[in-house]
Amino acid sequence: MHTFTTRRTVTTGIIGGAVLALAIPMMASAHVSVSPDELVAGDHGVLTFSFAHGCDNSPTTSLRVTMPEGLASVAPTMDSDWTIDIEKGDDGLVSAVTYTALAPVPNELRGAVSMSVGLDENTPDTLAFPVVQTCVEGSTEWTQLAEEGEDPHSLDAPAPVVNVVASADGEHGGHDAADDADTEEAPDAADAPDALATALGAGGLVAGIAALVVSVLAYRRRA
């Protein structure tokens, strides 16, 4: 009887650790991200918004990206996989862009859209791009912003955020930086390792191993 109980405890510990190791990184990385997440003040560059999951596992049909104040220009990138609808405000500037997929994007595939944005001297230090992800069933609003001192990773549905930094010489960025952004694709956030996800996954695996060790020790004592 003791042997059966111990074996069941060992199995439960292994399965529990494996589930935590695999499930937690998936939950932590299931968001709409932007790359690059930093631009130089007064410059312009290409932003890529990407995702790897739908709404509760439902395929994605569209992304609506709202523009923050402080952008001098916005030019969505043409893409044969998406139709593009541009909304403009009373000032004539682009206020929102909706990308609609010609075919729903399955959960097994990564989806991405991009646009060129220009900054000027009035651009704030932080640019938040609220995104509404619509799926075949349901939708998710990636609009939450972290309060001062709050970890963005703790949010359930964080909005993609781009930080604006001063150029090395303290002046506005030039065209060279923009050319580099066009010719050298920045690593996408959806492809880059998520430090938090990795740490949480490792924690789950360690928990499983710990449960296994405790169970084995308990078995030996009873034996």
UniProtKB/TrEMBL annotation:
Keywords linked to the UniProt accession: Membrane, Transmembrane, Transmembrane helix
Domain of life: Bacteria
Residues of the YncI copper-binding domain: 31-164
Pfam family of the protein (one): DUF1775
Gene3D superfamilies listed in its UniProt record: Uncharacterised protein YcnI-like PF07987, DUF1775 (2.60.40.2230)
Transmembrane segments: 195-219
Segments of skewed composition (Basic and acidic residues): 169-178
Annotated stretches, region: Disordered: 169-190
Bias type Acidic residues, positions: 179-188
Coiled-coil intervals: none
Protein name according to UniProt: Uncharacterized protein YcnI
